[in-house]
Amino acid sequence: MPRNVYLYLLIMAAVTYLIRVLPLTVIRGEIKNKRVRAFLYYVPYVTLAVMTFPAIIDATGSPLTAVAALIAAVGLSWFGGSLLQVSILSCAVVFILDKFVP
């Protein structure tokens, strides 16, 4: 069965267009429902987390070192560490654990 790439691209473009245009045409006024506003507030953060978390686990040679670096990074950032400090700590944890974990 031959695959028509142009048909796939057309369908993808239509779906992408509808996803972006429908909210603009359906919702004209300000959203006043507190639950919907709270849901929409967290959508960018959840999307970023969903895209980033698998990459963190697959970034190192071992998932164990990746999880340890993730825990260390979350801990340091929780206590007010800067982005540079968190990055350096994460890299150091992976570097040190790679020497000891087979």
TrEMBL record:
<protein>
    <submittedName>
        <fullName>Branched-chain amino acid transporter</fullName>
    </submittedName>
</protein>
<dbReference type="InterPro" id="IPR008407">
    <property type="entry name" value="Brnchd-chn_aa_trnsp_AzlD"/>
</dbReference>
<dbReference type="Pfam" id="PF05437">
    <property type="entry name" value="AzlD"/>
</dbReference>
